[in-house]
Design brief:
The chain is 38% helix and 17% strand. It is α/β, with parallel strands linked by helices. The protein folds into 2 domains: 167 residues, Ribosomal Protein S5, domain 2 (2-Layer Sandwich), CATH 3.30.230; 311 residues, 3-Layer(aba) Sandwich (Rossmann fold). Strands 11-14-17-10-18 form a 5-stranded parallel sheet. Strands 1-2-4-3 form a 4-stranded mixed sheet. Strand 6 and strand 7 form a beta hairpin. The longest helix has 18 residues. It starts with a strand and ends with a helix.
Length: 506
């Protein structure tokens, strides 16, 4: 007898439907799974046999073939156990085939019939919405995450027996309810008022948040570079619903425990300097998201930037330009979103005290140049704001607290509102993402500002990319001033934040 059930398997941050077909016929007693299953899927035959038997059903000693369609799609993970078990029971005549129609079944089976959590619950719920299924059966642990989407009926099941009784209508289960979202998907986190002094660096944080720009902080140890970086996420605008869904999908693929609801906090990721390029951008035989995708919509902080492996830093070029990263492996090609604000921090030299008035630098000019040379020109070109963070003076530590994050965030939100109107209907979301056509359209400086830009281009030897990024930063500064055009003051301030272009090491 032949039966069918629908399951799903994650593919990137989305999910794809898998038709599970079970055929039982006379022959050697075996269960064979075909359709490009990976090891975890192949091993499900033993889990399914034991779970079905321990739920009181008998699996006859006959030839059982399980086909996973489409056949050319690699099936990975533990998502298909429940669908295989339900389809097997229908093929055995224990369930009417029609009770499997219009439903998606996903879950890992334990040998006792219990259903364990899976990854990618929200992506599977989104698939159910697109397919307009009547119901989605997932593990209880994934029910809150899947129900948060609010557009598909989600039922959390704790065991194979519960799933059987539910589809038969013997003991119907209540649909899971997602936790209602608050109107403000934001979390301010550490307060900018805690940072004493460093007014220039604080200004750069505000500009970076307002325009989505990348930032490099250069200064001696203890100047507050990490403290500043950790406060950038609190200045960013609240998450939109679309961003929250994307972020939750990504986190669900790697989290040890499924999210209970849509995530409402912008991520702050700070990987170790020994990270590999695969861990940075994603990898594995079946590609998984890396740090750049886990930082999507938030901040990726690279402390001691020159100490990172060269290949890991160079791998950042594509996501910094495109806002996404494509990972190609022999078995799959995955594209993950990776739109984040990059914040790098480094010392001015190996000993850390080059240019410090209170501590003597022991590095030679050649050593200083070699240390800074670890950051390639193309990489520095992609960092819009490069600012020196000097050591904090005693009187600054004793000064009154500065502006809190909430006050600065209001100005950032106003600048972002201007950009939302500017880019309405266009591909860009912020000034930092402007294309060349949009740059020509929205960033024409006045004559005096244009002359200043030309002088800076010649004097500092700016590349074409660095030239464009100065214009983008100037546009953001103008937005913070609510100015319609870009003036000399805006361009001058933007040029000031190219410290590594302006002054080579002595």
């Amino acid at each position: 007898m032949l039966s069918r059930a629908t399951a799903a398997t994650p593919w990137g941050i989305d999910a794809l439907a898998v038709q599970v077909e079970v055929d039982i016929r006379n022959g050697l007693p075996q269960m064979q799974i075909v359709g490009l299953p990976d090891t975890a899927v192949r091993e499900s035959r033993e889990r399914v046999r034991a779970a079905v038997r321990n739920c009181g059903f008998r699996v006859p000693p006959r030839s059982i073939v399980v086909n996973l369609a489409p056949a050319d799609l690699r099936k990975a993970g533990n998502h298909l156990d429940l669908a295989i078990a339900m389809s097997l029971l229908a093929a055995l005549g224990e369930l009417p085939p029609e009770c499997l129609e219009g439903r998606i079944f996903c879950g890992e089976l334990g040998l006792d019939g219990g259903i364990r959590p899976i990854r990618g619950g929200l992506a599977i719920a989104d698939l159910g919405r697109r397919l307009e299924v009547a119901e989605l059966l997932v593990p209880v642990a994934n029910a809150g995450e899947a129900a948060a989407l609010g557009e598909v009926t989600v039922v959390g099941v704790g065991s194979l027996g519960e799933a059987i009784e539910h589809v038969l209508g013997v003991t119907p289960l209540k649909p899971a309810l997602g936790v209602p979202l608050s109107g403000d998907l934001s979390s301010r986190g550490p307060d900018l008022a805690d940072v004493r002094g460093q007014e220039t660096a604080k200004r750069c944080l505000e500009i970076a948040a307002a325009g989505g720009h990348n930032l490099l902080l250069v200064g001696p140890p203890g100047a507050g570079k990490t403290m500043l970086a950790r406060r950038l996420a609190g200045l960013l605008p609240p998450l939109t619903l679309v961003e929250s869904i994307e972020l939750t999908k990504i986190r669900s693929l790697i989290a040890d425990e499924p999210p209970s609801n849509l995530l409402a906090t912008r991520p702050f990721r700070s990987p170790h300097s020994g990270i590999s390029s695969a861990a940075m951008i994603g990898g594995g035989s079946i590609p998984r998201p890396g740090e750049v995708s886990l930082a999507h919509t938030g901040v990726l902080f690279l402390d001691e930037l020159p100490e990172f492996r060269r290949d890991a830093l160079e791998a950042l070029r594509q996501p910094l330009e495109d806002g996404s990263v494509t990972v190609v492996r022999a078995r799959a090609r995955m594209t993950y979103p990776a739109r984040f604000s990059l914040v790098g921090a480094c010392n001015p030299c190996r000993c850390g005290f080059f240019g410090d008035s209170r501590n003597e630098c022991v590095c030679t000019p050649l050593q200083v140049e070699g240390y800074r040379g670890r950051l390639s020109g193309p990489m520095l070109d992609r960092i819009d704001l490069q600012v020196e963070v000097p050591a904090v003076q005693l009187q600054e530590l004793k000064a009154s607290p500065g502006e809190p994050s909430r006050t600065v965030a209001l100005r950032v939100a106003a600048a972002r509102s201007i950009q939302n109107e500017r880019f309405d209907g266009l591909l860009s979301n912020s000034n930092a993402e402007m294309t060349n056509d949009e740059l020509d359209r929205f960033c024409p400086p006045d004559k005096a500002a244009s002359r200043l830009l030309e002088e800076a281009f010649e004097r500092f030897g700016l590349s074409a990319r660095a030239f464009n990024r100065v214009l983008k930063v100037a546009r953001t500064i103008a937005d913070l001033d609510s100015a319609e055009g870009i003036g000399t003051g805006h361009v001058a301030e933007a040029i000031q934040y190219r410290s590594l272009d302006r002054r080579p090491p002595d």
